[in-house]
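User:
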Amino acid sequence: MKAKHIASAVLPALFATVAFAGEYDAIKTAAGAEFFDKECHRCHSVDADKASYGPLLTGVVGRKAGTFEGYPYSDALSNAGFVWTKGAIRAWMEDNDALVPGTKMRHVGVSDPTVQDFIVTYLASISE
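Assistant: Predicted structure:
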């Protein structure tokens, strides 16, 4: 009998946690879109119909670095040999020159880890 009472108390809390997690991700994604517009949108687009100076970032999470078709990457980035993971994107935002010496992208430095997290969450949401 006690197990039944415990389950009836725990299960709603679990469902509420899952619902909150989804809401939390939506909030992070929306904030990430705002930070992307502020920090990255000057040079990068997420819309294939809009030209940008840098490569299109839709689908960037999981893409091999330096491989977006048609973009003239530096030799350094073309030969970097890694995949854009969430961690690699954070490292790039923090100090792209340290991650890939010789890249042609000027360093803009997004050093706040919370802002990095929001931007990465947004980029991951448009990479699925």
